[in-house]
Every structure is written in structure tokens, then in C-alpha cells.
Amino acid sequence: MEFISECRSAESLYIYGAGAVADMFYIYLKQIGLKEKVNGFVVTKLGGNVSEKFGLEVMELASRLEELRKALVIVAVQEGVQEEICRILSVNGISGYCCVDSGELLDDFYEELYREPVDGYKVLFQNQSGKGYGGNPKYIAEKMLELDKSRKLTLVWAVSHYRLGFPERIRQVIFGSEEYYRELATAGVWIDNSRKGLSVRKRAGQFYVQAWHGAAPVKRVEGDVEEKLPSYYIEGAKHDSKMADVFLSGSEFYSKLYRSSFWYDGVILKYGLPRHDVFWNTGEIREKVRRFYRIEKEEAIVLYAPTFRSYEDVECYDLDIERVVWALEKRFHQSFRMMVSRHPVNYRAYSFRRDATYLSVGEYDDFQELLAAADVLITDYSGCMYDFSYTGRPVFLYQKDYREYLEDRSFYISMDRLPYIKAHTNDELVNAIEDFDGERYASELEVFMDSMGNYDRGDASEKVVGYLREHVLDF
């Protein structure tokens, strides 16, 4: 009560945090009539965070120091990082702050939510914490809609903002909203492709499908880079794996990786990845993407899709678009259009020439459809190289910061063992395109893919939904 009394007496409040604890605390303040006092959410660095929550701005600490020094700042984050946040506030001259007891908050929050029963016919989907209608969850949802002839199921999708393009039968809910947490607490099945953190609690009667977004044997992940991950992420990942009832796997490589590096010892569905099903029927998808971006039939598509960096570097994104397109047209004897897709957590600017001509496609919901539509892929260390391999089309790797990235992440398989065409400068990339040997590439790609023990046969979605119908969902 003393804590809430401080909130009531303060002229203005700022909530420090942009995750689940911050969401829940704001909802709590709303319930007790104090939401009007909240001026916004604060984070140390905006980075990949959303720019607003509940209609309020999410702002960087440095941009509001004077205001924060006059207000009461509520630190609403997991307990494991509260001490560091308090240190940052003190260093910046902010003394008026207090910390939420996240454990007590979660207990009270879920006690209220659990007053409603679990709905065994409701399925809650998420794609990268609200990115949109894509990834493995999309293809599972599509198959459910196809097979649910009697319309028994209720399908709900968590999004960062309401979007067009969803099927009529899928209801959207804003990720992190009060409605979202009610859906989370009452859905009989969860289907997600990224980690659910420590703030998420699974109750009896719920079934969790972890449809992980990774597939490529390239960048080291999870437990294999534990020393470079924040402690709160590691604890959240362990919590997520403990909640999961099944993990989806596309290959023997990844099945073994789940056991060795994901803190997971449960059921693995070795069916392939639902999002890979699209590569067994790319014709309609290619036409769909072309219509959306108004690309002529005679034009080929090159997709540039680099991954993010944890270190500060934008010079690595200096692809010479004009020269690359020229080289592709010279080698393949047809016109090319360049598409550029930013990684979903990459907020840094790309250093293209100002006169570069390209289509920015980072907001397209289903990245898998972009891969299916592309004739050539240019990436760096992104796992999309592996997904795209199912098309058999050329992959070029532009790796200007190879040594720096290797020190930061390291790889499961040496880049030298991968069949993709590699370049460290724009000059090397242009030359590699001009000298591309299609027959040699196809042969090396086939040997490599066979070595991974892939399960994909174009029917992963059907097999996953079949498993759920047999064990969980009665429709």
C-alpha cells in the first residue's frame, strides 16, 4: 500500500521497461484508476523495442532526463535486471524511483486471469512477438483453417498493431495488451516461434507448441553462446523450454541441437518445418509477391536480406546495389529488381548510396513468401540462406565484417564448408556473380543439404496439425 500511495501522490509517473512486467503494471494502474498519471514508458536504448505501448510513447532514457528527474519512475522489469536499471538511473541523477515486486505482481495478475476457464478449442498464435502473419505459425494456422470444416476452432493471433491480410476467421489481438493476456491465459493451445519469457505462466490444460524460427546450421544460438546472452534471457529460455510440450524440427542437425543447447528434453516432432512447405509450390506465391510490388513478369527478383549485428556497425550494410544488379543482368541475361528486407530486430540504417534503387520489403508479413518469390538471394550470415536452399536457386554471401562477426557469434559449420558463393567486398561480389557456375553450385548444394538429414517433404503443416488433432484438439 505504501508503494501505491507514492504513485497516487506523485504528479507524474514513468514506467521503466517495455516488456511483460511493464505491461502488467500499467494494466494494474489502469484497474486502480491511476493510468492517467503515466506519461510514458522508458528504456535505456530504444533499439528494437516498439515505439509506443497503450497509446503512450516508449522513449529513450537520455531523451527525457529532465522530466524523469521531476517524476516518479517505476522500475517494472524482471528482478534479475532491476539492480542494473537502478544503477543507470542513479548515474543519470534520477533519485525518485522504486521497483515493482514482479513476483507478487505476476501472482496477483494471473490469479485474476485464471478466473476464466481454459478454452480447449482456442489457439493463440505468435510470430516473433507480434511481427505479423508469417513464420511456422502461419502455415499451421492455414492448415487448421483448411481442415476445420465444422468451424469448431477459435484462432487468435498476437500482433504489434492491427494488420490487413489476415484470414477472416483469425481474430487479431494487440501483443502485450490486457486482452492479449486474457487470451494467453485461456487459450487451450499456444503456437509460437520465439521464446516466451519468465513473465508468461502456463496453466493446467494448456498445450504449448514451440515452432522455433531457426533452421540453419550457421550461427551459434542459445546455450552455445550462453556467455554472451543476458542472464534474464537465459532464465527465460529455460522457462520457455520447460513449458513447451513439443518442439518442431526440420533436420537431424536441429533435433540434436535442441537436446544439447536449448535446455529441452521433451517431445520433438521430426516432420520438417511448416514454413518450408511453401517451397514445394512456389508458383502462386511468386505471382502474389509480384502483384503486390508491381514487378513485371520479365523481371527477375534479387532479395538482399542481411542479419542483425549485436555490435555497432552500419558499414557492413554497404551493398553496391547498382553494380550488383548490373552484374546479375549481365550473368543471367535478364532484368532484375532489387528487394531489401531488414531483419526484424535490426534498427540500424543501411549505408547504401543515395541514388540506389530498390524495393524496401521489411514490413511484408511473411518473409517466407519473399524467399519463395526471389530468383537470387544475397545475405551474410542469416539462416535464411538455408531456407532458400530448398528452391535450388543461387545464394551469394556478402560478408564485409566476417572476422568481426566470427568473434561475436562464431558458427556451427565453417563458412568454407557451405556451398554458397562468398565475398568480402563489393568488387569480389560483382566478380563472383559474373563468374557464377550454376552446375557446380547445384551439385555442392545437393551434397550439403543431404548431409543435414532434412525431414522436409512439403507436408510438415499437415503432419503438425495431424498430431494436434490426435493428441490435443478435437476437430
Helix content: 25-40%
The unreliable regions are none
The figure for the number of domains is 3
* N→C terminal distance: 48 Å
Tell me, rounded to a whole number, the average pLDDT: 93
Please state the overall shape, judged from the principal axes of the Cα atoms: globular
CATH superfamily label of the largest domain: CDP-glycerol glycerophosphotransferase, C-terminal domain
User: Total number of β-strand segments?
Assistant: 19
CATH class term of the largest domain? Alpha Beta
Radius of gyration (CA) equals: 24 Å
Q: Summarize the main sheet.
A: 7 strands, parallel
Topology-level CATH name of the largest domain = Rossmann fold
Structural class: alpha/beta
Q: Record the strand order, biggest sheet.
A: 9-8-7-10-11-12-13
What is the annotated CATH architecture of the largest domain? 3-Layer(aba) Sandwich
Binned strand content = 15-25%
Number of helices: 17
Question: Brief description of this entry?
Answer:
The protein is of the alpha/beta class. Helix content is 36%, strand content 17%.
Please describe what this structure looks like.
This protein is an alpha/beta fold and 475 residues long. It has three domains: 2-110, Rossmann fold; 115-272 and 459-471, Rossmann fold (3-Layer(aba) Sandwich); 280-451, CDP-glycerol glycerophosphotransferase, C-terminal domain (Rossmann fold), CATH 3.40.50. Helices cover 36% and strands 17% of the residues. It has 17 helices and 19 strands. The chain has helices at residues 2-9, 20-31, 65-70, 79-91, 102-113, 135-147, 178-186, 231-243, 252-261, 283-293, 321-332, 367-373, 384-388, 402-408, 426-434, 438-451, 460-471; strands at 13-16, 38-43, 52-53, 56-60, 72-75, 97-99, 119-126, 154-159, 170-174, 187-192, 207-210, 246-248, 267-269, 300-304, 336-340, 359-360, 376-379, 395-398, 421-423. The strands form three sheets. A seven-stranded parallel beta sheet has the order 9-8-7-10-11-12-13, sandwiched between helices. It is globular.
